[in-house]
Amino acid sequence: MFSPQRTMGQYTTPKETVQYMTRKLLSELPEKSDLKILDPATGDGIFIHTLLEEGLTAENLYAFDIDKKTASPHPDVHFYYEDFLKVDQQGQYDAIIGNPPYKSKRQSPYFSENRERIEREFGKIGIHNLYSLFIHKGIQCLKPGGLMTMIVQDSFLTNIYYKNFREFLLKETEIKEIVLAPRRLFHKGKADVRTAIITLKKRDMEAAAFTQMRLVDRLNEQNYNHPPEDNIQYLSQQTFEQMPAHNFAINVPEDILRHFKVPYQPLGSVLKGGTGISTGDDRSFLREFKNEHAPLDWIPFYKNGGSKDAWYYEPKYYIHKNWPEYVDKGENFTVRNRSYFYQRGITCSSMGVDFSAALLPEGSLFGVNANLFPEQEEDLYYFLGLLNSKLIKYMVRKVLNRTNMITSGYIKKIPYIEPDPLQKQVMIETARNIVDKKKENPSFQTGEWQSLVDQTVYEIYGISSFSRSKVHDFCHDIMEKI
């Protein structure tokens, strides 16, 4: 047996997942004896072995791998110790299946070692992770009408860096199905990675915009073949084409999705700001004053609150008032949005699965997390309430960005609906009351006031009771649902 962890970032795919992918692929393929099916990063050969178990002959199967420790999965399979990303086999295969490596540009020396070729061949889709290069290359190697089923990291679904890659998929393929794979699928291989299974067809004709995609929400290996009905959604491919940055939103109710269809008014039209100070070395520039008052020459610094810090929290870090001197001394000390410094605003969490917002007190500075400022000061508490609602958390984490880094750019893409005066007043008063209580008691449970905020936001956005239930379930168990 070979180690499941591969040098390029590939892990052995569990058998149940391989069986589902194999059967899905074969169900979409025509029955003919001369099929050519490829696994471009075969590893221990589990996909090849499963295809053989499903009745394919070795003569039908082709495999590539660059790992010399990997033995041929079968003596009669067409097996090559070559870098698939370097081969020229356009239009050669009826189908491609596999689990390509997941290594980002920063993690793998492969990118720097092959920089010029990668930029030349893949630059248009964005060069961020090996798996997206494998999919791009695989589509080129498919015959028109050929099929692909891959399990890959799910970052391509919403991350802004994959916008061009999503656009490429929408233009060149018909998306048959996207399944959010089990949350802990690769934990046995000591890989904490969220994955998705995508099945697509290389276009052999123009009309694909109205192709019905089957979208399946996060599931476990026991219900691949019979997922809960609530986990399944059918949408036209055109829906993704109309999304901002062509986001691939999986199993999102249509009365929520409709708010994202371009053109729409984004939150960024009424909230300004963004990142602030990046010290380059927080240990050197920031201090904590636990159980003591901070000296007057140290300024409160808000860098990234957590879910427990929603609404209001006391500053955890401070930066010296002479911070402007660091800009010239430290080459990694950078400053943005200086015009918003010391103003009262809203500071948002940026790292981790959850999302929350808190009051940014006057006289404070802020880091590289999202820090936002309303055009009208009197609207501050309204937007604080809005950003702490379950619906907005759902929009941020389910639709706009499934990865664990939420920047101001994502938050500014939240659809904005102007509330009526009564709705705005209810939100302002409720948010102000919660902040006051949090100042008195950081452990204060928002309870009924949070429910009032959620109810008001649902009404503003016209969300049905069915969709409210979906939002609640997602937010209640976000670690498992994301």
From TrEMBL:
Protein name: site-specific DNA-methyltransferase (adenine-specific)
Keyword Transmembrane helix: no
Record InterPro entries: DNA_methylase_N6_adenine_CS (IPR002052), MethylTrfase_TaqI-like_dom (IPR011639), N4_N6_ade-DNA_methylase (IPR050953), SAM-dependent_MTases_sf (IPR029063)
All residue ranges annotated as the Type II methyltransferase M.TaqI-like domain in the record: 81-179
Molecular function terms from GO: DNA binding; site-specific DNA-methyltransferase (adenine-specific) activity
EC number: 2.1.1.72
GO biological process: DNA restriction-modification system; methylation
Catalytic activity, reaction form: a 2'-deoxyadenosine in DNA + S-adenosyl-L-methionine = an N(6)-methyl-2'-deoxyadenosine in DNA + S-adenosyl-L-homocysteine + H(+)
CDD domains xref list: AdoMet_MTases
Keywords assigned by UniProt, alphabetized: DNA-binding, Methyltransferase, Restriction system, S-adenosyl-L-methionine, Transferase
